[in-house]
Automatic annotation (TrEMBL):
This is HXXXD-type acyl-transferase family protein. InterPro entries: CAT-like_dom_sf (IPR023213), Plant_metabolite_acyltrans (IPR051504). The keyword Ribonucleoprotein does not apply. GO terms for molecular function: acyltransferase activity, transferring groups other than amino-acyl groups. The lineage of its organism: Eukaryota, Viridiplantae, Streptophyta, Embryophyta, Tracheophyta.
Amino acid sequence: MSRVRVLEVSRVAVQPSPYPVPDKTIELSFFDSMYVRLPHLQLLFLFPDTATDSFPGIIGSFKSSLTRMLPFFHPFAGKLTYIPSAARAVIDCSASAISEGITFIEAESDLDIRSIAKYGVQDHDTFVQLLPNVTVPELPTVAFAVQVTRFLSGGVALGIAVHHTVADGKGIWQFIEAWASICRTGSVPSAGFIPVHDRAVIKYSGGDEIAKDFIRKVAPNLPKTAAPHHSLQERMQLTKGTFLVDGATIKSWKKEGIHVSPSTFISISARVLVTVASVRGLTNDNGPFFAGFPVDCRSRLNPPINDSYTGNCIAPCFARMTASEVAGPGGFIRACAALKEAVIKANKEPLVGCEGWIDEALKVPAGRAVRFTGSPGFKFYEADFGWGKPDQFKVATLNRDGDVVLVSGKDEGTVEVSVVLPAQHMDAFAKRFLSPFSRI
């Protein structure tokens, strides 16, 4: 039974601004096209200490800062749509497309926000109620929506939904950071702050044809998106948990893999791989086991593109091992080495074989992969809208067995790890993940 009640649904318009909003569509790059059929990314910020007696003022601050910020990030006000004559999906940023504005939902809840803002195994159904309900059965669809919920016992939640074709993790963080800054200070960014949305900055021979091919493969029935179907029974069997890895633990993991010199990302990811393979009972399984993870290509392209680019610019990479190599003795070292080798290869040649990215992903057997997204460098806990930093940040869009998200934690040097596993494996994962190596 829902414990969140919608109070009002309104629209936030793009405010007229000296910063010109191009009246045109944005053709998706091959980086963007991989995500056409996927559901919106859903991000949740929880502020337990925010007083709700000033809720109308909070809503006003969110809305006024959003309308002033959207001219800088106009694709977020657009619509993802399909152009049959060109066999292309685009972000429609024309005047008519953005004239409706952003969907903005105000809600209230009798839930206890502090029971939600905690680590460990979580109640995903509760999170969903605190997020904008955006479905994508077919195009066009909105690029972005907002829900702000006040808790009767105190506290506020900010939920956003953004379609992945609009931006990758770095682009979304740029958006959140700018919005929070305007909301907190009341000032728009300086003239030097101009995020880049034009996909033409990505120079790659044959890129347009690759983009069309990706769309044909992932969404052959456009404008119907044919999103992956997950039955209720399948969803009920999966659980989600978030775990905080402190600096001392990360240091100990790096020391364990000292001969490989693993980065923070590699040491945490290797630990996740070993724990998942272990709880799945794969110690004697010689079948394949994959780790998939994104690599930011902005600085690695030729020519490189600026960090101010908001569109997708991440290459999917895979490290391949056997399950027994990961789950057995010495699995952590082998996992670190395999991940590091894949990272080194991606750093040198990020786009080699890019036309086969979709085919490679589709070949990974079900239940044989851990898919990492996010980064320990994503500092979503820095999102201060004017009433302090969030107490908890959660990525709600985790739908498959083996999905993992990494983000920087609240405290310096910490990292949060969110994991999706079948219920029968989650308790064992929770007990083993942060325990000494001898107990894995």
